[in-house]
Amino acid sequence: MTLEQLQHWVRKRPTLADTLGIELTALTPDYLEGRMPVDGRTHQPMGLLHGGASVALAETLGSIGAATKIDPTKQACVGLEINANHIKGVREGYVVGRATALHVGRSTQVWEIRITHEETGALVCISRITMAVIDLPAAPAKA
After folding, report:
1. Which tens digit of pLDDT belongs to each residue from 66-93?
2. Cα 26 to Cα 43: distance, rounded to the nearest angstrom
3. How is the chain split among helix, strand and coil, in percent rounded to 5?
4. Does this entry carry the keyword Hydrolase (predicted)?
5. Per-domain residue ranges for the chain?
6. Which of 64, 84, 65 is closest to 124 using CA atoms?
7. What are phi and psi of 136, to 5 degrees?
8. How far apart are CA 97 and CA 25, in angstroms?
9. Is 59 part of the annotated catalytic residue set?
10. Which of 2, 16, 39, 83 is 20–30 Å from 65 (CA)?
11. Which whole-number Å values give the CA distances from 117 to 12, 90, 98, 141, in the listed order?
């Protein structure tokens, strides 16, 4: 898939990514990148980036990245476990997440997502997600 095809696929229906303003910005054989605004949609009450928003960005990128490694007509990837360490607070601008596959297996994938501040490059959050690769039900035979 190309970046443009992924962007179209993600935008087919309203999602949490739309609500949070997440956009995909780069796709290479080695990583998927996206960014998210730090504003009222993603703030916690103290005016800082909400940790849950960082996790939502990480899961979005890890899930989409995992989907690029399978045949989506035969399989799907679903989140099995995610963790995150919040390193630095951010009040404004954008954060950028880069998802890199650590393991791509037949039944599981493990992705690392590093989230940095777009302007300063400071590490904001590091997350790891484990994806289960499941087979889709076979289409019923036509009579």
Report:
1. 999 999 999 999 999 999 999 999 999 9
2. 25
3. 20, 45, 35
4. yes
5. 3-135
6. 84
7. -80, 150
8. 10
9. yes
10. 39
11. 28, 7, 12, 51
Q: Which two tokens stand for residue 110?
A: 């493990």
58 vs 36, 110, 137, 139, CA distance in Å? 10, 12, 28, 32
CATH for 3-135, options being 1.10.3720.10, 3.30.70.2640, 3.10.129.10, 3.90.180.10: 3.10.129.10
Find out whether 130 and 110 touch, Cβ atoms under 8 Å. Answer: yes
Structure tokens given for 92: 């404004």
Among 4, 23, 59, 81, the active-site one is 59
